[in-house]
Design a protein that fits this description.
Elements (H helix, E strand, L loop, with lengths): L2 E2 L26 E5 L7 E2 L2 E4 L2 E4 L5 E7 L2 E9 L4 E4 L7 E2 L11 E3 L7 E5 L2 E5 L7 E5 L7 E6 L7 E5 L3 E5 L7 E5 L4 E6 L7 E5 L4 E4 L7 E2 L13 E6 L7 E5 L3 E4 L7 E2 L13 E4 L7 E4 L3 E5 L7 E4 L5 E7 L7 E6 L5
Antiparallel strand pairs: 1-13, 2-3, 2-31, 4-5, 6-7, 7-8, 8-9, 10-11, 11-12, 12-13, 14-15, 15-16, 16-17, 18-19, 19-20, 20-21, 22-23, 23-24, 24-25, 26-27, 27-28, 28-29, 30-31
């Protein structure tokens, strides 16, 4: 039975140093930066609004950033320790989803047909809001308190279908908006990301921490691993990120310990994207691709931002906008000159 969570203490003062309320800007500011010129320059976007006034999220360690599918100016920030934050003005200001509480938020998923329906992970639970962050209820709890929910995704065709993954590799599915759940796969490794094909939502990709990528073409009835095409690349099963190339169907960009790999056939085969650094020599901590031009790729390491406009033949390198570490990159789905960059201070994971 769903139970409504008790409102936690006032959001402004409960973040225990994760949200800095005042003081000078830090050269190691984390939080969010925004570029309006495809990564050439960056502006810090860390204004935090609360009932007592304003502050800063420059002390927040970002894990990922998620657009509302219906409103690209609505962005949800999953943090490592500061709970769930959100912006309704393209990161000009941030607020806290106070009923979610403080803690690590692994994943957020927004209903593509109803922007007020939001799902988030919280430890071993899944929480749901149906009123745009005003209140939250618990729709799933794993009785194994040490097993965390690590990934979420909502079907964009049937928005009552929700998928979740956990830290031991179980894949869960609900067909009634989180009321009931069933296990549809056991991958025996931490689920790090769930991607649902926008062209055919029966096609789903699940990335794991160190056992590669799995795929279903029938909404989870059967899973196949895509590792045969990856094994030629050393350390390619060690996940860093997986994203769609929005310019063409069945196209994926995969960051692994090896480096960057591209597939144009739904993961059956992969080709390496040429990087400046040798294979398996640096960790790619953030990855993005233009939704309009797939030759424009961005990634970042602990200290450096990389950009190519020709698919990897040549790279532009820049220092990160602060002394913090790269955590997440995402390009605005309509204005591809706009990039959001989440940063964190070690240790990120």
């Amino acid at each position: 039975m769903k139970k409504t969570l008790i409102l936690l203490a006032v959001l402004t003062l409960t973040v225990s140093g994760c949200i800095r309320l005042n003081g000078p800007k830090s050269p190691s500011a984390a939080g969010v930066f925004k570029s309006f010129d495809k990564g050439n320059t960056w502006a810090e976007k860390n204004l935090f609004l609360h009932s007592g006034g304003s502050g800063s999220i420059a002390g927040v360690n970002v894990l990922n950033l998620n657009f509302d599918p219906q409103d690209r100016r609505a962005i949800y920030l999953a943090s490592d320790g500061a709970g769930l934050l959100y912006s309704y003005d393209g990161a000009d200001s941030w607020r806290k989803a106070d009923q979610v509480g403080n803690g690590r938020i692994e994943s957020v998923a927004i209903d593509s047909k109803n922007k007020c329906v939001i799902y988030t992970t919280f430890a071993n639970t899944i929480l749901k809001s149906v009123d745009c962050n005003r209140s939250w209820s618990e729709v799933y709890i794993d009785t194994r308190a040490d097993k965390t929910i690590t990934a979420l995704a909502v079907d964009n065709f049937n928005n009552l279908i929700v998928y979740a993954g956990n830290s031991v590799g179980d894949i869960l599915k609900s067909v009634d908006g989180g009321g009931n759940w069933q296990v549809i796969g056991r991958l025996n490794d931490r689920v790090t990301k769930i991607l649902i094909s926008p062209q055919d939502t029966r096609i789903i990709y699940v990335a794991t921490r160190s056992k590669g990528i799995f795929k279903t073409t029938n909404a989870g009835n059967q899973w196949n691993n895509l590792n045969d095409g990856l094994k030629q690349f050393s350390a390619s099963l060690e996940y860093r990120n997986l994203i769609f190339d929005a310019t063409k169907p069945n196209s994926l960009l995969y960051a692994a310990k090896y480096g960057l790999l591209k597939s144009d056939d739904g993961g059956q085969s992969w080709t390496a994207i040429n990087l400046i650094t040798p294979p398996a020599s640096v960790d790619i901590l953030a990855l993005a691709i233009s939704p309009k031009n797939n030759l424009e790729i961005y990634y970042a390491t602990t200290s450096t931002f990389y950009k190519t406009i020709d698919g990897g033949k040549n790279w532009i390198t820049k220092r990160l906008p602060s002394g913090a570490v790269a955590a997440y990159l995402v390009v605005d789905p309509l204005e591809d000159n706009v990039i959001y960059f989440g940063l964190a201070n070690p240790t990120r994971k």
